[in-house]
Structures are given as C-alpha cells and as structure tokens.
Amino acid sequence: MTTTxxxxxxxxxxxxxxxxxxxxxxxxxxxxxxLTAFDCTNGHKRFLTPDFPLRFVQTLLKSxxxxxxxxxxxxxxxxxxPHCPDCGQELQGAPSSTANARTDLELPETEPxxxxxxxxxxxxxxxxxxxxxxxxxxxxxIMQAVANAFRxxxxxxx
Length: 158
Prior knowledge:
This protein is α+β, with helices and mostly antiparallel strands. Helices cover 18% and strands 36% of the residues. Strands 3, 4, 9, 10 and 11 form a 5-stranded antiparallel β-sheet that branches. The chain has a 4-stranded antiparallel β-sheet with strand order 1-2-5-6, with no helix packed on it. A hairpin with a 6-residue loop joins strand 1 (3-5) and strand 2 (12-18). The two termini are 22 Å apart. The relative contact order is 0.25.
C-alpha cells in the first residue's frame, strides 16, 4: 500500500479504490468503477497525479467504444441545432431512448478503470434513424459528467 502525506493537513494518506462514482450532465450519464485516489485519515482526497483528471478524460474521449449510434450534425449560424446525418431533418424534442457503452481505461499509475457512458438517442422525424448528440455535445457532456462524478467523491481538481 502506498502512503504519502496529505497536502491539506499533513496526515498520512493511503490508496483507496472507489466502487462506483456517478455523474450526469443533462442527458449524458457516466459511471466510473474502480477509480483509485489518495485518502487521508481526515477524509481529504486527491488524485494520484495532478494531471490525472485531464488524462482520464482525454483517454476516455479517444475510446472507440463509447459512441455506437451515428452522431448528429450541427447546423445553424447563430444557434446551432442538431440534424440527422442521413436526411438532414432537424432533431427536436426529448430523447427516444439511450445508447449505453462500456470501456476499460488503462492509465499507467492505476489498475484498469471501468467506465460506462449513457448517451441520449433522438429519433429522426424524417427517416426514423436513431442519432445521438453532435460530437461537440458528446464531448462536452462526457467531460462535465466525469467532473461531476469526481465531485461526488469530494476529490478536488488538481
């Protein structure tokens, strides 16, 4: 077991592994299983390295396993709106269902971390195809949902 000193109170810290952390951003949901962090005897937590959250998100967004549905296309000059990538019809209303994906992230300083992502699916009124958010919306939603999952465990950034 690795032991260091807490940066906030100088108490001894040890590694702790979180069973499950959940975070949401709108209709995007992220579940993280097996995240390892430092935890001191006074309850202060911190990531294994200062750049861990950034590398975690970058690695997650590079995963080919996250998005199984076609991405919507953004159209509009001042106000971007999602459109079907096949027929071009604007996607409106609430999501019709959810696309779920799972991946295992491998980062050098930790055991593999299981991540589940749920993205909203919208049914196109023109061609009936199910489509998810445009790429910027997917990335923004996942980044914010991961940040919210980390906050739920009281792990401050950096």
